[in-house]
Amino acid sequence: MAKLDHIMFATTDLNEGIAEIEALTGVAPVYGGAHAGGGTCNALLSLGDDQYLEVIAPDPEQDHEGNLAGELIAHGGSGIRSWAVATDDIQQSRTIADAHDLGPQPIVDMARTTPDGVRLDWQLFFLTRGRQMPFFIDWKDSPHPALTTPKGCLLERFTASLADAGAYSVVMQALGVEVDVISGPLGLTAMLATPNGMVALESW
Predict the structure, then answer these.
(1) What pLDDT digit, counting tens, does each position of 20-62 carry?
(2) d(CA 1, CA 114)
(3) Helix then strand then coil, % of the chain, to nearest 5
């Protein structure tokens, strides 16, 4: 069974995003690094041994045109933008997604270097069809980021809300993804157990 790997919490300024999450949870995410060529940088907060929250924002040292950073700036505000599912067979996950007409993009190799000098290499692919769909990630031989990021918070529940909950559930089962699905207005909600009590993060 595939498992939620991390939640992407988008913001237009990394320091402001870090401060927002710290105020909500009582734990401050730490700087993770920049995505070279992608226009973004991040800060991370562990949600358990193999799950984490990623605060992602435009990197002031990179160009923001035509990439995710530009999208973050244009949208404004903060909140859950997306979520990632960990897989140890990314090609099989992509094949299943293709069979369900989810429009999987090509698998991309990515990397970044942590402030401690550790190089992380991973592969991922995104889906072009289906609202609320996750993207898929394979960390290969890299240490999982949740092992070295600030602890104190746990993911208690992650919920996808959408009108066609039944069809969405069928696709999630085919992909081997465990997620709570409810009928309702389009949105994602993460319930976190934190030093400040239960905290709900909502869609961007």
Answers:
(1) 999 999 999 999 999 888 899 999 999 998 999 999 999 999 9
(2) 29
(3) 20, 40, 35
Which residue from 157, 170, 131, 155 is spatially nearest to 45, judged by alpha carbons?
155
Number of Cβ within 10 Å of residue 105's Cβ equals: 13
Euclidean distance between CA atoms 170 and 181, whole angstroms: 10
Residue 129 and residue 79 in contact, taking contact as beta carbons nearer than 8 Å: no
pLDDT in tens, 31-42: 999 988 889 999
Please give the mean pLDDT across all residues of the chain.
94
Distance between start and end Cα atoms, the chain:
27
Cα torsion angle, 4, 78, 44, 39, sign? positive
Is the separation of the CB atoms in 8 and 51 below 8 Å?
no
Q: pLDDT of 138-188, one tens digit each?
A: 999 999 999 999 999 999 999 999 999 999 999 999 999 989 999 999 999
Neighbours of 38 (CB within 10 A): 15
The second-level CATH assignment, the architecture, of 3-143+150-202 is Roll (3.10)
Q: Where are the domains of the chain?
A: 3-143+150-202
Answering whether pTM is above 0.90, one says: yes
* 47 closest CA partner among 79, 14, 8: 8
